[in-house]
Design goal:
The complex is a heterodimer of chains A (162) and B (106). Chain A is mainly α and 162 residues long. Helix content of chain A is 78%, strand content 0%. The relative contact order of chain B is 0.12. The chains are: A mainly alpha (162), B mainly alpha (106).
Chain lengths: 162, 106
C-alpha cells in the first residue's frame, strides 16, 4: 500500500462523484468511463489483469457506447430547461460531497484498521482455469443471460404489431 | 505483511463504502432513468472492487476474477435491456423522467 494506491482510490472516488454531480448526461457518461479506467488501473495493481482487461474493454468501452447511443436517441433539452434542471440538480446534490466528507472523516478517525491475518500465499488458481474447468456452470449462466438480453432488446424494438 | 494487509483492507474498504454511498445517493435523488442506471453502474463498480479486494486478501484471485467477469457480463446485459426500456418509454411517453411517467399513470 503506497501513495500511488491511495491516489488511485481518491481519483476513483472523485470521478464517481463527478459522474453523479455533473448536470449534462453526456459528461456523466464520460465520468463513468473515467471511473472504469481508474478501476482498471486499481485492478492491475491488485494482480487481476484478466478482470481489468474486461473492465476496460466492456465497461469503459461498450457500456459508454450503449449510453451515448441511448442518449443520442432522446431529445436535447432547451437552454431554459437546462438552467432549471441545473438549479434543481444543485439543490438536490449539494449534500452529497458533505455527506461523503463526513463519512470519510468518521471512518478514518473512529474506525481502526482491523487485524487481517497474513496475506494468503496459497497456490493462486489461474482465472482461465477457474472459468473453463471449475466454474463451467457460470458460463452456461452467462450464455443464458446474454440470450435473455438479446431477446429482451428484440422485444422492445419489434414493430408493426398493430 | 500483516500490517500491509490491514492497511490495504482499511483504505480500500473506506473507498468502497464512499463509492457505494455515491451510487445510492444518485439512485435515490435522481428521477431521470438514465441517471438511475448510472447510479446502478457506480454501485457495481464498488461491488467489483470489493470482490477483487477479497480475492487479493484471501489468495483466491482466480475465483474472484471469474466472478468479476460474470458480473461484467450481467452488467452489460442489464445496461442494454435498461437502455432498451428507456428508449421504449421515450418513444411512447416522450419523457424519461420517472416523476412525469408517474403523473401520466394518474
Amino acid at each position: 500500500m503506497n501513495n500511488l494506491d491511495i491516489l488511485m482510490l481518491v481519483l476513483f472516488l472523485l470521478s464517481a462523484l463527478w459522474t453523479v454531480m455533473t448536470v449534462r448526461l453526456l459528461r456523466s457518461v464520460i465520468g463513468l468511463a473515467v471511473t472504469s479506467i481508474i478501476l482498471t488501473i486499481i485492478m492491475f495493481r491488485l494482480n487481476s489483469p484478466l478482470a481489468a482487461v474486461f473492465e476496460l474493454s466492456v465497461c469503459a468501452g461498450l457500456i459508454s457506447v450503449i449510453f451515448v447511443t441511448t442518449i443520442s436517441f432522446t431529445e436535447r433539452v432547451s437552454a431554459a430547461r437546462f438552467l432549471v434542471r441545473q438549479k434543481e440538480r444543485w439543490s438536490k446534490f449539494w449534500p452529497l460531497p458533505i455527506l461523503l466528507a463526513v463519512v470519510a472523516a468518521a471512518l478514518l478517525m473512529f474506525v481502526k484498521a482491523p487485524l487481517i491475518p497474513q496475506l494468503a500465499a496459497g497456490q493462486a488458481l489461474d482465472a482461465r482455469n477457474v472459468i473453463w474447468n471449475l466454474r463451467q456452470l457460470d458460463l452456461a449462466g452467462q450464455i443464458a443471460i446474454l440470450l435473455i438480453g438479446i431477446f429482451g432488446t428484440v422485444i422492445f424494438f419489434r414493430g408493426g404489431e398493430k | 505483511m500483516n500490517e500491509l494487509a490491514s492497511q490495504l483492507f482499511y483504505y480500500y474498504s473506506v473507498a468502497i463504502i464512499l463509492v457505494t454511498i455515491c451510487g445510492l445517493y444518485c439512485l435515490i435523488a435522481s428521477f431521470n432513468l438514465m441517471r438511475a442506471i448510472i447510479g446502478i453502474e457506480i454501485l457495481m463498480k464498488g461491488a467489483t472492487l470489493s470482490l477483487i479486494l477479497a480475492g487479493y486478501l484471501t489468495g483466491n484471485l482466480g475465483t474472484a476474477q471469474a466472478l468479476v467477469i460474470t458480473l461484467i457480463v450481467i452488467e452489460v446485459v442489464l445496461m442494454v435491456v435498461a437502455g432498451g426500456i428507456i428508449l421504449w418509454l421515450f418513444r411512447h411517453y416522450g419523457t424519461i423522467d420517472s416523476q412525469e411517467l408517474r403523473k401520466l399513470k394518474g
